[in-house]
Amino acid sequence: MEELAYHILDIARNSLEAGATAINITVEEDTEQNICRFTVADNGWGMSPQVLRRLEDPFFTTKSGKKVGLGFPLLRAAVEQCGGEMLIESKPGEGTRVCAAFPYNHVDRAPLGDMAQTICTLLAGNSHVDFKYTYIFNGRQVKLETQEIRKRLKSVPLDHPTILLWLRQYLTETTQALHGGDDYEIARRAG
Questions:
Q1: CB–CB of 161/169 below 8 Å?
Q2: Number of domains in the chain
Q3: How far, in whole angstroms, is CA 71 from its chain's centroid?
């Protein structure tokens, strides 16, 4: 996968397929500590220790009709390529937590990608799920909590096209503001 946002999207979709009604996504970039880390935690069905042990086998999947499951093996490869760390915790009936950490300035680290689009993609068709998204850059943060937004919108669904467009713009602009308005991915790659 070319961007970390694709891994986050894949993990969150797994959460949805596992019956999650609440998904918490946190992304942190800290240039001083040289870390880029993301965590996806859910309250879905969770996985048994047996499934957890086989999760990174590309020829194992819990999805019916599929013969391979490449999401976690690809994430593991991306993490190891940079000398990062990955942790997957899960308990049946309690949910799953996936955390991946990379050296921020490692030349082989994939760019974060378009998290605003990723969050809006998850919201489309899943407006009943409580999403919490937190993006932290050098200690400053942007938060989005769908439960709070739903209260303010009252009868307008979160996946209404106008709302999704507004949310994408809000996330894009507030994230850029944390970076001083610059296109930080281009600057990071050039620097």
A1: no
A2: 1
A3: 13
